[in-house]
Amino acid sequence: MFDVCRVYWIVVWVALIPVSVDGDDALKKEQIDKWSAYYLKQAKSYELRLTDPGDETLTLVPTPVLRWQNPLRSTTHGECFVWTRDGRALAIASIFSYPVDNNQRRVAHAFNSFALAPLVAEYNQQPFWNAPPVSNEEWQMVPNSPTVASSPARRLSQMRSLARQFTAELGGSDGEEKRMLRLMTAPLYRYSSHDDAEMDGALFAFVMGTDPEVILLLESRNTDSGRKWFFLAGRHSYTTLVLQHQDREVWRYTRGERSPRYLSQHGIDLQPAVLE
User: Fold this and answer.
1) What is the arrangement of strands in the sheet containing 200-208, beginning at the earlier edge strand?
2) Concatenated DSSP letters for 226-240?
3) How far is it, in rounded angstroms, from Cα 275 to Cα 31?
4) Labelling 4: which of 81, 109, 254, 272 has CA 20 to 30 A away?
5) Model pLDDT, residue 72
6) Closest to 36 (Cα-Cα) out of 21, 16, 20
7) What's the CA gap between 176 and 124, in Å, rounded?
8) Which of the two residues, 63 and 28, has the higher pLDDT score?
9) Rounded CA gap, 171 and 216, in Å?
């Protein structure tokens, strides 16, 4: 049975965090709280299920694993939520908004699936998304992976060290400027198993501002030579994305390609720029 070992809730709407609660700053804090409540309500409107074998509902982690802002994209901001089975992260979503005309913000939802079985999502009890399972071919062993450590603290240290071996960039297609992404060295979400002391995993993010563009899942998996660290990459952006491990390309998404384990749906809702 998996249990959540540690959830990192990173409050990173830096430009919006008030330094006091007087005057305009109080309004900013009030708006942060209102948008946070709105995003959580949106996340709770989903039911995610595995359909094989049986029909098993996933559990929503009740707090966002990341609050983010991207001032380079029209003051876009949002929150990331994780759904789990026995604590293991099987899906992550960004629920976010960005400004449009008439002092309004358009709401969008972007999902990634890391499930080993087919996953379906319903939004307000209506069909929303069907994601195929992760194939075995998509998992890659981290090059020169060490044997998985025996203690939770050492496994976390291993994962953070391995994550730093990766780099990511976006753009480079359709005339887009290439931009290096920043790794958030603290995992968004980490899980482990008390039944199997060597089973562990964590979600990391490569970000623009604090907006996640590439999701990196590290997980310990069995091999003929013992447990090793494997990785799985997920796009979390509309543009071209490249992941490298120590300067060698290991994963790529090219803008316009079909990506069935990712869904980004805009126009979910339209809200006033300032929530009442």
Assistant:
1) 2-7, 182-193, 200-208, 211-223, 226-235, 140-141
2) EEEEEEEEEE-SSS-
3) 7
4) 109
5) 80
6) 16
7) 36
8) 63
9) 18
